[in-house]
């Protein structure tokens, strides 16, 4: 069936809930309203208010309740209305959920998912545009995923729900209704920890995730016309990173451009670069380069947002520089 | 000149500035009557009264939010969060509010405040009291992050922070709070924010460290000199914005870089430092950049703490590896 990215999320939740009675959803306006973006539309009708729970506006409560539910044997899926507000429920995830297994010597587990609508490009302004994945992709005990396609959105969400560890699931708002593709009707998983090669090539390699994948694919098309053959690796999972795939494409092409929508400084590009340079030092024909948002908060005004965020032209400019290095 | 440890040096800086500027107020848990959990604010309430040295309830979000409000109202608050692990409870106030006030108000509300955070492991504390979450802050533009490694810098950086004009997160390496005594001038001086210091000159290898890891880095450099290897040691001092120029200049001279930090390797700022150096000193590098860090695991309880934390021995092993490369 053809589904948009957001319908694929909805479908994944529905199927996971049908398969496992322990899966419950909680979040602000997710039940009667079906969620701010309608990701949980229709689920209250099918599963009732005991499994699809509207909460007060309190991210720390939502995440804390999810930890409690998970410890007690349920598989909660919490929704942050916007990823930006995860800062209000950060302690529960980074001090509690992530450390539970370790603190109990393996005697406890915390199977929970936090869904985070993230990303810019939708005129969300300062407080509704963030990409806070780097805050989490450094926390031992967590897993972090960021699907770029409708197929992965479904498969990674089901995998996250079935995983016995806490998973932070970043869903990109810009992609919600802009992508439509064939998605299998049945339940399936996309394995956590595996990147996907979206395009094979020999001269340079883009490493990316989330909505930036499409900037890279568009840039790769252009470069092809200029006689530069590029490879595009979609990380999909940000923690743990698929080191083997990253190192392989660096060794193959010798030139890597990392593209993400998060800010350059402190973004995930740093870790990916470090992995490459530690493991493929002698294969590199150029330093690993990065394209990301400018080191500033996002803006509301269209031209400002355009100035701050990466776009196809910025990616192309960096890719040409890398190709010529 | 009096010989002071880091605790007394910070105390002295606060005392001097409170004497000069009655806008300076201190708030935090037990900072008043008790003088702070580590006694950094000892004696200040007696001297300046309970209206300027204010004991708060146990609420890091409340402390940080109050500090922000005071700063917007024209005061100069110095807020204490007892341990860095509790910073997460104030992350919304830090990253979504404090960091953006200048940008959101188009410069109409430049706020000056200092958030003091006892930082890092090594004091046999339980979980949540031993983290090094620099990476969370480095990914957040709008806040400046400093961390002294000795009593002289502790006083000078605090004095500079109190006159900086933007929010400062002042990380205090609690492991060496009382471990070093050094001469600290009583008179007014500032250690510039945004500048790293070359703590030891060398020609074969650059070691970058900050906070408590500086002591280990200097020990390692001493031992390496017995091997005939001359190590340059850079004390980062300001973590964000990072003085990468000083590091890059040094690496252009030595050709080798080792970065050490207590935080887990993955997603730590060792990666951010490495990627900048690769970008600017790619052709000078004689070996891959080495990261000597904590493990990608939850900071353990005290029995395993010495095993977990990087130390001079591990730095030496890392240094030998890249010296032999």
Summary, kept brief:
Chain A has 325 residues and is α/β, with parallel strands linked by helices. Chain A is 36% helix and 20% strand.
Structural notes for this entry:
The complex is a heterodimer of chains A (325) and B (325). Chain A is of the alpha/beta class and 325 residues long. Chain A contains 12 helices and 14 strands. In chain A, the strands form 3 sheets. In chain A, strands 3-2-4-5-7-6-12 form a 7-stranded mixed beta sheet, with helices on both faces. Chain A has a 5-stranded mixed beta sheet with strand order 9-11-10-13-14, with helices on both faces. The longest helix of chain A has 15 residues, at 5-19. Chain A is globular and about 60 Å long. The termini of chain A are far apart. By secondary structure, chain B is α/β, with parallel strands linked by helices. Chain B has 2 domains: 3-183, Rossmann fold (3-Layer(aba) Sandwich), CATH 3.40.50.970; 197-323, Rossmann fold, CATH 3.40.50. Helices cover 36% and strands 19% of the residues of chain B. Chain B has a 7-stranded mixed beta sheet with strand order 3-2-4-5-7-6-12, with helices on both faces. Chain B has a 5-stranded mixed beta sheet with strand order 9-11-10-13-14, sandwiched between helices. In chain B, strands 1-8 form a two-stranded antiparallel sheet. In chain B, helix 1 packs parallel to helix 7 (151-161), helix 3 (60-72) packs parallel to helix 4 and helix 9 packs across helix 10. Chain B is globular and about 60 Å long. Chains A and B meet through helix 4 and helix 10 of A and helix 4, helix 6 and helix 10 of B.
List keywords for this structure.
heterodimer; A: 325 residues; alpha/beta; 5-stranded mixed sheet; 36% helix; B: alpha/beta; Rossmann fold; 7-stranded mixed sheet; 14 strands
